[in-house]
Structures are given as C-alpha cells and as structure tokens.
Design a protein that fits this description.
Length: about 350
C-alpha cells in the first residue's frame, strides 16, 4: 500500500532474504556469472530458538565452510543511514509454573488457601529491583566488558531515542535513560524480561475465584560471554534460595551470544561498500539488541559476520502491520549485489 510492503515476517526477515536472491539474479543477468561461490544457509526455527541448529552446523562443517558471512535482518535508521550490526545477544527463554491447589476455589477461601498467582508474583519480584538490576546471584559474573572500539562505536551511533519514544507514545525510557547511556544499555547490557503472565479468570465481567495455577514466560537476553545454560542453573538456585523450590522452570530456548570484532577485514569491506551504496558511512552496531543463531557460525565455523538489510525503525517486527519501504527494498538489493561483488574482489 503506497510506498510500503506489508506482510508477516517481511522485515524480520523474508524481505532481506528476497533482496539477496534478487541481487544474485541481477549479478548473473548483468555479468553472466557470480564473482564468488555463494552458499545460502536458511533455517525456519529462529523465532523459537533454532533448536538443532548447532548440531546441524557441527555435523556439516565442511559443507558450511566459508570465508565470510553476510547475516540477515538489519536495515536503516530514521534518517536513512545503513545499519551494520556485527553480533547478536544470546537468549534463555523459559516459563515459570506455579501450582497452589488441585483446583480453583471460591475467592472467599483467600483467608487460608494459598494463591498461585500471588506466589508467582512474589517469586518474580525477587528477580529484578526497581533500578532494573537483575538480582540472580552470579548473573553478571561472565559478562565480558565491551572493548574500547565497541564503546566508541556505540558513542558514535545517532541518537534516535526521541523518535522511538514517539513511535511508542511514551515520555521516558526506564531510569530516565537518554543519549549514550540509553544506547549503551540497549545494545551492550543483558536483560530479564517478562513476556507474559497467565492465571485465574480473565474473561468478561467478574468471577470470584482463587486460581490454582499461574505461569509466566520470561526471556533473558545475554551478552558475551554469558552461557544460557549457566543462567538457567543460576535461576534455579535463586528460586530455591528464596523459598520457591516448588516453582517449575520449563526452558523453551537457549542460544549463546556472538560478536564479530570491529577490526575484522570483512567488516571493513562491508562498511566501505555500504558507504558507497547509501552515500554515507553506515552505523556500526557491535551487537544487535535481538537474538539469532550466529554463535555456531562465528564460534564453531570461525566465520566473521556482518549484516545489512531492508528494514526500518518502524517496521513493527513481531507486531501487526509489519512492513518495509519499497525504496529500502530496492536499495537493499543494490547493497547486497555490491557486497557480493566486493567480496569477489577481496576474498582472502
């Protein structure tokens, strides 16, 4: 509609994949051949933590061997500047489940019968304080401090906090964060987030019950060198220590963080190419705020990664009216073709 293309997953990240297929087609049409051998590695389970992907990579190292990787899912800033991410955060996605009684009972029994919703609420309240500090013992122990180059990259990023706040219809971010502190926390810090809460009656009108069960879905975004399996063990110890041994942890996804260094030659090649295509230097992002299965590529295969794409800051990924702009898509095709061509001239 108009200058926009809409569709579920069009920004995250079918549009980027389509743009690269179009780039390959264009290069072959113009030059008769590609400047280098290209391998597409596409898997459909990224949104549920890419189960089995590490095993697949381990079993097919020779098939997947490469000199460099062009990752998926980036885009442009509010001002149209290309964004060049070099890493992803890790993830632990789990559900806390609490059962208080064998069945729901009338709420008049709240005087003496334990309430699963309250118990889960008390457990959740032990995980983080009002200053946004995560209180699980040892949670921050393995966080690798960002390098000087990574800190400088974050400092140099454009300040888009105000634009993003307006798109969300909010006045302030947590802790009143602004400027460099906002960017540093967003890209370089781990998180503890509640994705959803379920308990009791939530239909229309009233129903006075005391719920037997309660559950909460959580995700922890992790940074190098945190291990999602280690965080899961620490979460279990934390709950036990605070008297919540009865609360069950069900894990749905675990991914390690990964990051390519800013000093990699591949990063230079992609950065210079994007500058030529977009007419200005790209924004270097040491680590995306989100997660993807980059760890097996960077750590197991030893392949440096860099990213460019067709999204925009208001692409609304994971939400209604997910979109990309037609012009960003066209420019994304040109960028992908230019990066492939540059790789053909550079490849080590």
């Amino acid at each position: 509609r108009g200058d926009f293309l809409y569709g579920r997953g069009i920004s995250d990240d079918k549009g980027t994949l389509a743009s690269r297929l179009a780039a390959v087609r264009a290069l072959k049409a113009v030059n008769g051949r590609l400047p280098a051998r290209i391998k597409f590695l596409v898997e459909g389970d990224e949104e549920i933590g890419s189960p089995g992907f590490e095993d697949f990579v381990a079993e097919h190292r020779e098939l997947l061997a490469a000199d460099a990787c062009l990752w998926e899912g980036s885009g442009v800033t509010w001002e149209g500047q290309a964004v060049l991410p070099l890493g992803v955060k890790g993830l632990l996605y789990c559900e806390l489940r609490c059962r208080g009684t064998a069945r729901d009972v009338h709420s008049s029994w709240a005087t003496v019968v334990p309430n699963a919703a309250w118990r889960l609420t008390w457990a959740l309240a032990t995980l983080k304080d009002q200053d946004e500090n995560i209180l699980v013992k040892g949670f921050y122990d393995d966080v690798r401090p960002p390098t000087k180059a990574e800190r400088q990259a974050v400092k140099a990023m454009p300040d888009e906090a105000e634009d993003f706040a307006k798109s969300l219809a909010i006045d302030n971010f947590v802790l009143g964060l602004k400027g460099r502190k906002y960017r540093s926390r967003h890209y370089l810090d781990p998180t503890c987030n509640i994705d959803g809460l379920t308990s009791g009656y939530q239909g229309p009108g009233s129903k006075t019950i005391l719920p037997a069960q309660a559950s909460a879905k959580l995700d922890f975004r992790l940074v190098p060198d945190q291990d999602p399996h280690d965080i899961e063990r620490k979460l279990r110890k934390h709950l036990d220590k605070h008297g919540f041994e009865d609360i069950e942890i069900v894990t749905f996804g675990a991914e390690h963080p990964a990051r390519t260094g800013l000093d990699e030659e591949w990063v230079r090649v992609v950065r210079e190419t994007l500058k030529d295509v977009y007419g200005q230097d790209p924004v270097i992002v040491p680590t995306m705020a989100g997660t993807g299965p980059m760890y097996p590529v960077v750590k197991m295969l030893g392949v440096p990664t860099a990213d460019c794409g067709v999204g925009n800051p208001d692409s609304r990924i994971h939400a209604p009216n997910e979109n990309i702009r037609e012009q960003d898509y066209r420019t994304g095709i040109k960028a992908a073709a230019a990066v492939i061509d540059a790789f053909g001239r550079w490849r080590p």
